[in-house]
Amino acid sequence: MSRITEARRDHIADEKFAFPKERKEPIHDAAHVRNAIARFGQVEGVTAAERDAAWGRIKSAAKKFNVEISGEPSGVKA
Question: Quick check: 27 and 57 in contact, CB under 8 A?
């Protein structure tokens, strides 16, 4: 996965982040979707509702980019 420069990250639309309000976990391509899945449990400073919504966005992005997800992370309402 290539690193995103700060300038490039600033140009990613809010809706292309799992946590758009915080602009955490970009999900604009398959590599970043995989990374968001792997690091999902490490995100701090978000509510349970934000976490549930973020997981929904990650699942949608995974489907779009044909990224396989096995199971649901703990603490997320299915």
Answer: yes
Q: What is the pLDDT of residues 30-59, one digit of tens each?
A: 999 999 999 999 999 999 999 999 999 999
In the chain, where the domains are located: 6-64
Radius of gyration of the chain (CA): 12
The DSSP secondary structure of 6-34, one letter per residue, reads: HHHHHTS-GGGEEETTTTEEE-SSHHHHH
The pairs formed by 60-64 with CB atoms below 8 angstroms and a separation of 24 or more are 61/18, 61/27, 61/28, 61/33, 61/36, 62/33, 62/37
Residue 29 backbone phi and psi in degrees, to 5? -155, 170
Name the token pair of 74: 């703990």
